[in-house]
Specification:
two-stranded antiparallel sheet, alpha+beta, 185 residues
Length: 185
C-alpha cells in the first residue's frame, strides 16, 4: 500500500523540482526512511508513544449502580458505585507468571452522579473493556493477585485518605487526563 505522502512525493518528482535529488525532502519516503504506514501508526500510536490494544487485565466483570446519597464535595449529586469482580484464576501469557494461580478481587469504586462523573464512568468502562484498569502483580508475601493498574479509583465514598476517598475536587480531571494518556477518550 502506498501512503498519501509517498504519492505526493512521486508526483513532485515526476513534475520536476528546483531542488537536487539529494536535498529533496521527499527522498526520505522513497528511500524507506519516511514515517511508518498509517496502519502501523494506528497500531503503535503516534510519535513513538505506543498504546497497547489491550492490557494484561484478567477476565472480570464491571457493573455499576446509582446510590441515593451524595459524596463529600458533591452535595447535590447521587453516587455512582462501580463494582469490579475478578474471580481467582490462572495467569495467561499476558501476565507475569503464566500457568500460575492468582487471587481474585472484589472492589467498589465511586463517582459523583453528574455530567462529569458519567463521562468518567463511560471512559472507565471503555478502559475496563480494553483491559487497562487492572493487572496481576505479586504482593509483598510473594502471592500473585489482581490489583488496580495505573488509573486510581476512589474506593472510599467518604472519610478515606486523599488518595482513596472523597472529597477530592481534582479527581475527575486527573482520571480523564490519565485515561487520555492511555488513548481512552
Amino acid at each position: 500500500m502506498i501512503s498519501f505522502s509517498l504519492c505526493v512525493c512521486l508526483l513532485l518528482l515526476s513534475m520536476g523540482s528546483g531542488q537536487s535529488s539529494d536535498t529533496l525532502h521527499c527522498n526520505r519516503y522513497l528511500n524507506g526512511n519516511g514515517p511508518p504506514p498509517l496502519e502501523q501508526q494506528a497500531k503503535e500510536g503516534l510519535n513513538g508513544m505506543y498504546r497497547a490494544l489491550s492490557g494484561c487485565q484478567p477476565e472480570g466483570q464491571m457493573t455499576w449502580v446509582i446510590l441515593h446519597r451524595d459524596l463529600p464535595g458533591f452535595p447535590d449529586d447521587n453516587t455512582l458505585q462501580m463494582n469490579y469482580i475478578f474471580p481467582d484464576g490462572i495467569q495467561t501469557e499476558k501476565q507475569p507468571h503464566p500457568g500460575q494461580p492468582y487471587a481474585g478481587l472484589r472492589l467498589c469504586a465511586y463517582l459523583p452522579d453528574n455530567r462529569d462523573g458519567r463521562r468518567v464512568l463511560k471512559l472507565l468502562d471503555k478502559a475496563f473493556n480494553e483491559q487497562l484498569l487492572f493487572t496481576v502483580t505479586t504482593n509483598k508475601d510473594g502471592e500473585d493477585m489482581v490489583t488496580t493498574a495505573s488509573i486510581p479509583l476512589k474506593t472510599q465514598p467518604d472519610g478515606g485518605s486523599g488518595v482513596d476517598g472523597y472529597p477530592d475536587s481534582d479527581y475527575l480531571k486527573t482520571v480523564r487526563r490519565l485515561l487520555r494518556d492511555k488513548g481512552i477518550e
